[in-house]
Amino acid sequence: MEIRSTTDEDLDVFVDTLHAAFGLFPETPVEGGGLWWSALETDRCLLALTADGRPVGTAATHSFELTLPGETLVPAAGVTAVGVLPSHRRQGVLSAMMRHQLAELRAGGDFLSVLLASEAPIYGRFGYGPATYTAQLTVERHKGALALPRGRGTADARATGSVEVLRRAECGEILEEVYDRYRRAQPGALSRPHRWWTLRAGQPPISPAPRYVAVHRDNDGLPDGYASYSIDSGTLTVDETITTDDAVFTALARFVLGHDLVSRVVFKHVPPGHPLRWQLADFRAGEVSGDMDWLYVRLLDVPGALTARGWFTDGELVLDVEDPFLGEHGRYLLTVRDGKADCVPTGREPDLSLDVRDLGSVYLGGTAPSTLVRAGHIRAHRPGAATLADALFRAERSPHCLHWF
Length: 405
Hints:
Elements: E1 2-5, H1 11-21, E2 45-49, E3 55-68, E4 72-84, H2 93-107, E5 112-116, E6 129-130, E7 133-140, E8 162-167, H3 172-185, H4 194-199, E9 212-217, E10 223-232, E11 235-242, H5 246-257, E12 264-270, H6 276-279, E13 286-293, E14 295-299, H7 302-308, E15 315-323, E16 328-337, E17 340-345, E18 352-355, H8 356-363, H9 369-374, E19 379-380, H10 385-393
Parallel strand pairs: 4-5, 11-12, 15-18
Antiparallel strand pairs: 1-2, 2-3, 3-4, 5-14, 6-14, 7-12, 7-13, 8-9, 9-10, 10-11, 15-16, 16-17, 18-19
InterPro entries: Acetyltransf_17, Acetyltransferase_Eis, Acyl_CoA_acyltransferase, Eis_dom, GNAT_dom, NAcTrfase_Eis, SCP2_sterol-bd_dom_sf
Binding site for acetyl-CoA: 82-84, 90-95, 118-119
Subunit structure: Homohexamer; trimer of dimers.
């Protein structure tokens, strides 16, 4: 079997092979673009070929930036378009492509990669661990009143700013600008390259699918948040609400919850611990569903990744890290002082022993190391090690990723 990078001439073969792997047919191009594969970077796509040259597998990566705790922006390879023809599954094709891809990423200087898993069990064996989570909040509109603020400091944007309703086609630049400001401040968020917006490749509100957009503007008239939504059969569905300001989120939530001729409002992609449910006058009016994993993280260079992110507690831990897929093992002394980390090989006895996928899960601060100790994934070798790890790996806010790729 041969695994090689593609060229522009291979795009149709790549797309056809990928669709065949999932039993689908390529979509018909629509006016205004919107085909998700148009954002693929052909020099970052891989084809797996049989000895006689028949394509049987695909894999690709996007060039993203990932926001780490401490608002640090780092390059991140977004793994996507992974598929193997049904006739060649369980013959080592996927493992060979994953090993080839990880080697290429390392050679190119990447210290981490990320993906969205179509099936949760698949990618753990390749070293990817779930690192951000998302859920859906459904509110029956007749129960959707927000409680009045109690005291100063409560997030409430009724008295400041304004909300304007625009069609998606009228506000492309606004969406791109507001999203970019948001993702730079949100741990776990991925960039949306300009070409994605230009090609309209992805899911709403990037795609050409018709949407209304509630744009929030501050008192100076500058856009500082938006909610992309559609209405069908009395249900208003919010694709995403983008802002880093809780008061702006509240204003946008109040707007959609007050929409006429709507019986329920569905907020997709609500981050864990978001205050919106607590702002409802009737706590039970908000029904949480679809609680699921979203962004998976895979470390390719443990010291490089750990020294890249910001930290909020001083301390030191010895981490014993196994990487079964790549057949590697390392023991590292992680020392954190004044928000910066040093990570070097060590021969000291470990405080925690863990798989590289579990290190990926705790890396952004969305999964507590103590949870994985209790689950039997991580082994703590001394009392207090898990508690210290929880304090060290926490983020300034819950990591969250909205971008689909």
